[in-house]
Amino acid sequence: MRQASSNEAVQPPILHLTRPERLDMDALAAGSTPQRLLRDRQTLLHWIQWGTSLGWVLGTLYLVTTQVLDSWTTEYRFLGAITAMVMLVVYQSVGVFRRYCSKTSSALRLSQAWLLVLAGLAAIAFLTQTASEYSRMVVGIWAGVALVGQVIIYMVTQYLSSLWQRRMQVNVPALVVGSGHSARHLAESINRNPFLPDYVAGVVDDPKHAASWQGHKIPVVGALSDLTELVGRMEIDRVYIAMPVERSAEVAQLQRELLERNVDIIWAPDIFALNLLNPCVREIAGVPLISLSESPLSSGGRAFIKSVLDVLIASVVLLAAAPLMLGVAIAIKATSKGPVFFRQQRHGWDGSVFEVWKFRSMYMHDDERVSQATRDDPRITPVGRFIRRTSIDELPQLFNVLNGTMSLVGPRPHAIAHNLEYGAQITAYMVRHRVKPGITGWAQIHGYRGETDTLEKMHQRVRLDLEYINNWSLRLDMWILIRTPFALLCENAY
User: Fold this and answer.
1) By CB atoms within 10 Å of each CB, which of 79, 82, 351, 475 scores lowest?
2) In angstroms, how far is the first alpha carbon of the chain from the final one?
3) Are residues 182 and 312 both part of a single domain?
4) Closest Cα partner for 75 from 89, 57, 62?
5) At CA 368, angle to CA 366 and CA 371, rounded to 5?
6) CATH for 209
7) Is the pLDDT confidence value at 490 over 60?
C-alpha cells in the first residue's frame, strides 16, 4: 500500500496535550474555516490541447490572409482577437477538452464547437455591419483548414497522452462501495477511461444487492462489514462511496472507519433517484452546493450565444418569410371577419405571463373554457386549416423571439387554463417553464404537437420537454431546428 505524501496526511495536526487522548474530529472541523472543495482539475493535457488549437487557428488566419491578400491588416488582427475570445467562451461551455469520450464523439464535439464559434463571429459581423470588410475566400479557406487542423491536433495529442498513460503511469487500485445504476456506471466509467490512473478492483455491496452486479466484469468482493479488512488485504489506495444521500449516516461511519487505513475516500452521492433538473455542483466559501433543480439558461456564455442566435436567425427568417406572411394576412382578412393576429396570454420563462402571437386560424367565437382544436373542428377557417397544418400560423411568434419572451427552441407554451389543469395531474409539469418557451421543441419533432386529447399524450410531451431541459446544449438546439421541417406534417396537427 502506498504511503501518504506530505500533502495527503490523514492524521490530525500534532497538538500539545496534557494526556494521551483521541482528538474530536467533528469538533475540530466545526471550528475551522471550510476549505475550497471544487478544485481546478484541468490537466496539463487540457492546456496543451487548448494552446495548440488556439495557436493553429490564429496561425492559419495569419498565413491564409498574407497568402491571399499579401497583408496582415488591422481588420484581420481584430478578427483574430475576437475569435480567441469567442473560442474561450464556446469551448469552455461545450467542454471540448474536458470530457473523455470516443474519438468520433470527440471529433464531432470539436467540429460543433468550431461551427458555433463561426456562427458567433457571423452574428457579431451582422450586428456590427462589418461583414463586407472581410474576404469570403479568406474566411472560407481559413474556417475549413482551421477545423481540419484542430481535429488532427486533438487526435494526435489524445493518442500521445494515452500512450504516455499506458507506459508511465502507476495504476491506483480502487474499490466502489454501493449498489444501483449510479455505482455501476461509476465503476465501469473509471475502468473504461484510459486517462484516469484508477482501476476498480472490486465492488463492496450488501449481499441482498449483490445480484444486481451479475453479468458485469467487476466482481463483488465483499459486504460493507468487510470493507476495512478488504482495503488492507487488497492493498487498496482509493475508495469511492456511491451511496444515496439518505444513507449519509452510513457514509459518515465508513469515512470514520477508513480514516485509519490511509486511503483516499471519495463520496459520489447517488442523487439520480430524485426528479432532477439540470443538476450540477458548485461551492460558496468552501461549502458544497449540489443543485437539484436549476435552469440551464440562468447565465453563462452558452445562454448568451443562444440568445444571440435566436435574434439572428429570427431576423433572417422574418425577412425571408415577409412576402409569405403578407399573403397569409391578406387571405385571412379577405375570407373571415376579425383581426389578422390571434393573441393569447401564456406562461413563459419562470412562470411569467406573456402574450403569444399567431395568425388567426379560427372564426371569431366565445370560448370561455379555452378548448384545444380538434380534428374537423368547425371553428377553423379554410385558410386556418392550411396554415395550422403547415405551422405557418406560428410564424408571428418570431416577433416573440425578437422581444425576448420566446426562443426558437424550447417547450411549447400552453394556455394558462391548460397549465392549471395539467399542473394538478402531472408531476413536475410546471418545471417546463424553467427555460424560455419555444416555437419548436424536442417534443414536437417526436410527433407530440397539436391536440393532446389524452392525459398520456400530455405526459409524454412533458417528459420530452424535461428531457430537453436536462440535456440542453447549443448542439441539441441546432439538431431540433434541422429536424423541425420534417416534423411539420405530423398527423396530430389540425
Assistant:
1) 351
2) 70
3) no
4) 62
5) 95
6) 3.40.50.720
7) no
For residue 137, give its domain range.
44-166
C-alpha cell at 404: 425576448
* Burial classification of residue 240, based on how many CB atoms lie within 10 Å of its CB (0-12 exposed, 13-18 middle, 19 or more buried): buried
Mean pLDDT, rounded, for 102-115: 82
Residue 19 scores a pLDDT above 60: no
Same-domain status, 159 and 193: no
d(CA 50, CA 116): 16
Q: CA–CA distance from 491 to each of 222, 379, 384, 460, 488 (Å)?
A: 55, 19, 16, 16, 9
Distance CA 283, CA 291 (A): 10
- Cβ(157)–Cβ(48) under 8 Å? yes
What are the pLDDT digits (tens) for 117-173? 998 898 888 888 888 889 889 999 999 999 999 999 888 887 787 777 666 666 788
Q: Do 242 and 318 share a domain, yes or no?
A: no
Residue at 365: amino acid letter: H
Q: Is residue 441 domain-shared with residue 320, that is, in the same domain?
A: yes
Number of domains, the chain: 3
d(CA 68, CA 33): 60
Q: Which residues lie below 8 Å from residue 308, measured CB to CB, with a gap of 6+?
A: 120, 123
Q: Among residues 254, 272, 291, which one ends one of the domains?
A: 291
Give the H/E segment covering residue 212.
none
**pLDDT tens digit string along 442-468?**
988 888 876 666 788 888 888 899 889
Place of cell 419562470: 350
Distances (CA, A) of 325 to 69, 380, 488: 43, 19, 17
pTM as predicted: 0.59
361 and 412 fall within a common domain: yes
Percent of the chain at pLDDT exceeding 90: 20
Q: Name the DSSP letter for residue 345.
A: E
CA distance 75 to 139: 12
243, 260 contact by CB (below 8 A): no
Residue 468, Cα to own-chain centre: how many angstroms? 9
Residues in the chain: 494
The partner residues of 380 in beta bridges, in order of sequence, read 362
Grid cell locating 370: 379555452
In angstroms, the CA 413 to CA 116 distance is 27
Contacts of 44 (CB under 8 A, 6+ apart): none
Burial of 212 (0-12, 13-18, 19+ CB in 10 A): middle
